[in-house]
Amino acid sequence: MELFKANTNIDFMAVRKPALAISLILMVLSVAIIFVRGLDYGLDFQGGAMIEVAYETPADDSAVRASLEKGGFHQAVVQSLGSSREYAIRIKPQQGEAQAAAMPPADAKPADDKAAAEAAPPADHAANNKIADEVLKALKADRADVVVKRSEFVGPQVGEELRSDGLVAVLFVIIGIMVYLWMRFEWRFAVSAVASEIHDTLLTVGVFALTGREFDLPALAAVLSVVGYSINDKVVVFDRVREIFRSSRKGEPYEILNRSINSTMSRTIMTGLTTSLAVGTLFFVGGPALENFGLIMLIGIFIGTLSSIFFANPILLWLGVSKQDLMPQTKEDPELARMP
Amino acid sequence: MNEFPRWKYALVVLALLFGFLYALPNMYPKQPAVQISANRGFTVDGALKEKVQGILETQKIAFTAVELEGDRLLVRVPDLETQTKASDAVKTGIDSAGYVVALNLASTVPGWLTSIGAHGMAWGLDLQGGVHFLMEVDQKSVVDKQEQHYTDELRSLLRENKIGNSRAERGAQGVVVTLRSAEDRTKFAGIAGKAFPELIITEGATTGDAFALVAKVRPEKLKELALNTIRQNVGTLRNRINALGVAEPIIQQQGDTRIVVELPGLQDTAAAKKVLGATATLEYRAVDMTNDPATAERTGNIPPDSRLYRMREDGRPVLLKKKVIVSGDELVDASAQPDQRTGTPAVHVTLNANGGKKMLDFTMNNVGKNMAVVYIERIPEVKIVDGKEVRTATVKEEVVSNAVIQGVFSKQFQTTGLGSMKEASETALFLRAGSLAAPVDIVEERVIGPSLGQDNIAKGLLSVVIGVTLVVLFVGLYYKLFGLIADVALLLNLVLLVAILSLVQATLTLPAIAGIVLTLGMAIDANVLICERIREESRNGSTPMASIKGGYEKAWATILDANVTHLIAAFGLMAFGSGPIRGFAITLAIGIITSMFTSVTVTHVLVGLIFGGRRVKTLSV
């Protein structure tokens, strides 16, 4: 079975200028979306309210979750505590309440130490009690034998250090990939790959921000996997570019880049398909815990595949990749030894 | 030409065997249990086992087994309700000072598997839940520490300004400064107010020629300190738990004074509890070199800026300055290592930037003098008074080290002169345990359920099964025989991945499972590359055998480059250090390595086995 014609010969490079222009516009748009609209950070990053409730007789955790869902708490985390009579419920602060917690009311007298202390985030007791009351109301609608044992603010699961560590990690990844591609290929390939990485990540996060879904830890993991997937895709095409440059006599870059894209085409689509099959199922069947992961990966695979063709290779051409730069320099190179 | 030396076949068979053996423990479910470990000076033995068994029998608490495993006792119980009951019964029945009783989820893996080091993966908090500790930070000690600090500061300020016949002491209201005249009082109130704007200074009572000033720390400042204290403690606890090797814990602030620690199913909860509950703090202080401690002890005549302490090992008296140089919360790490020059036991200490600066200031002027480490331990007690729980704590202060300052140092230094490596590692342990900003007590311990509901877990697992099945079917249909070979390799990859994750004791969370699925989806990439290359080669007119050979050879360079760059990205994520992301990255990195082996070596060996002895005209690819 073959889904694609064996020898496609599409002139992808002909559209390189509009393609690059569109990519740049989309990047700017993504940055704008991320900064203006922002990401809806989940409980993992923000913290929220923690409410402990107790029932008189055992209750089922999915029933508790269903009651909360009915009461309008959609992303509540419900965990049994010790037995099936007691539950810990974690809820992200609602938009308005989060702001109220962050900004103490203007009319609070600064001299009143106690009031100042109470209003200071994150320990906004009033907002917390309000949530607790609403939760109790939602739970009582289904079962009357429930009481609130404790309601408090909980801090985020991932600390501040994730931000600084994350930056270091991203830099490490970029520099590591650049150095490797520089050594194995050439500096133009390194630059093009890293530019494509940034392009793919920005666009993926931008599109995800448009969906308005909650950005949680699995979502972060997915964004980082998009980086891995996309670099994989670029390297496969680059590898072919190098190979054709080395074996062809003429070494006309425009034509060679087109040939490389065409000859790796069926592989690019096949791998895109198999990976999409796996992560697509996570999105459609995986339930609330995995659908964000699946969605981001789907978006990322789509963007990554397109950028391998319309972004990474046009940049290579634009940077002036040539046959001389790619010829093996040492005699030990096995490919040179094999040549007649 | 597509045949291999024997050792390559043997390697594949060995990998297969290894994979199945080490992945097997994951088939055994975990069981609720109560774990009992001994504190120093107590032992877990047959007598304790019988005692525990007796307690459970007399209280008619059902249990499936009581087992002695090395230095711990495991009571296996049928369900979670019984677990709480059994834990409470054992706690009240045995000497609470001598033993740590903790809830646990024990493995049911048979002995022959554990004896070869095969253990099941721990399931994460999202899939299985774990042990939940609620810890209370002692905020009173924050106030105490601050008042002590300002007492010292005001005393130095009095001395600097040469205000004679004055005292600074801690009173019920705050710091009380007693001066000899009203003028002195007004003057000093001005000086102190300027030097420490965070203090509220009011005039106190005047009795005879004693004119008092009362200094209190501003409530906003205390509030801010309390928040910082919690934050620091969360950080310290996080470090301690990471040092235990527990993957993917949750450590969160809860309310104003509490910290939640949740650990997924782990081997030794009692050890975790001990480490969490090590509620000591420590202080570096200068040794008073001008006065003799023995005389001071005998006469009771202790200089005003010094205090009498005792050594931990022999109770000898030591006179230390009241002013603290560096306290435990500024300590980053302490480890026992032999001294690089002399090879004698030593403790290497690393301070944070602030602590390092203070240490530099101090050591510049004090080379050749002694410095001591005071270890302050809290022993929490719970009493029932009028039906209510009352928490009190007794405080024990001891000097654990008293050494000569050999040179000027700041952030990093080492303490030598310890008797043995054992002593060095004990001191290091004390130092590390003492790095909390304020003492914390465990006030609640429960087994917590999975944070994802059962139905969500079921959905997640179902999607994983469907996803992998779809990939397997699609590849099998599209690449026919070579696709089926790739499928075999894919399933072997899954087994190997699970085996290695179990071996390194990774924690299985839903994101990690997503990582596994993603790895499998991408592992097929190598086979796609190979199959497409084989197709290309045969299209170009090569014989079937030459096509296979050429396909594998040419695809290899691409697979290597693609996987190495992908691996660099995975290692970058590992550096994140944050639980769930790190777990995900570990899964990804291991998956990339195993997939290179299964997708290339294993499939090539299988192809060799199938085509090796035959002449083929066409390839089923």
UniProtKB/TrEMBL annotation, chain A:
Gene Ontology annotations of biological process type: intracellular protein transmembrane transport; protein targeting; protein transport by the Sec complex
Keyword annotations for this protein? Answer: Cell inner membrane, Cell membrane, Membrane, Protein transport, Translocation, Transmembrane, Transmembrane helix, Transport
One GO cellular component assignment for this chain's record is:
plasma membrane
Q: Where is this region: Disordered?
A: 98-124
Domain called SSD: residue spans: 167-318
User: What is the annotated quaternary arrangement, including any partners?
Assistant: Forms a complex with SecD. Part of the essential Sec protein translocation apparatus which comprises SecA, SecYEG and auxiliary proteins SecDF-YajC and YidC.
Q: What does this protein do?
A: Part of the Sec protein translocase complex. Interacts with the SecYEG preprotein conducting channel. SecDF uses the proton motive force (PMF) to complete protein translocation after the ATP-dependent function of SecA.
HAMAP family in alphabetical order: SecF_B
What protein name applies here?
Protein-export membrane protein SecF
This chain's source organism reads Tahibacter soli
Identify the gene encoding this protein.
secF
UniProtKB/TrEMBL annotation, chain B:
Q: Does the keyword Lipid biosynthesis apply?
A: no
Instruction: Cite the PANTHER family for this sequence.
Output: PROTEIN TRANSLOCASE SUBUNIT SECD, PROTEIN-EXPORT MEMBRANE PROTEIN SEC
How does this chain sit within the bilayer?
A: Multi-pass membrane protein
Pfam families in alphabetical order: Sec_GG, SecD-TM1, SecD_1st, SecD_SecF_C, SecDF_P1_head
Give the signal sequence positions: none
Q: Which GO terms describe its cellular component?
A: plasma membrane
State how it assembles.
Forms a complex with SecF. Part of the essential Sec protein translocation apparatus which comprises SecA, SecYEG and auxiliary proteins SecDF-YajC and YidC.
- Name-wise, this protein is Protein translocase subunit SecD
- Start and end residues of each Protein translocase subunit SecDF P1 domain: 231-288
Per UniProt, residues of the SecDF P1 head subdomain domain are 307-438
Q: Where is the SecD export protein N-terminal TM domain?
A: 1-103
Q: Which GO terms describe its molecular function?
A: protein-transporting ATPase activity
Q: What is its main location?
A: membrane
Q: Which spans are transmembrane here?
A: 460-479, 484-504, 510-530, 555-577, 583-611
- An example of a Gene Ontology BP annotation on this entry? protein targeting
Q: Does the keyword rRNA processing apply?
A: no
Q: Where is it localised?
A: Cell membrane
Q: Where is the Protein export membrane protein SecD/SecF C-terminal domain?
A: 441-606
Keywords in alphabetical order, please.
Cell membrane, Membrane, Protein transport, Translocation, Transmembrane, Transmembrane helix, Transport
Q: Which family does it belong to?
A: Belongs to the SecD/SecF family. SecD subfamily.
Function, in words: Part of the Sec protein translocase complex. Interacts with the SecYEG preprotein conducting channel. SecDF uses the proton motive force (PMF) to complete protein translocation after the ATP-dependent function of SecA.
Q: Which InterPro entries match?
A: Acrflvin-R, SecD, SecD-TM, SecD/SecF_arch_bac, SecD/SecF_CS, SecD_1st, SecD_SecF_C, SecD_SecF_C_bact
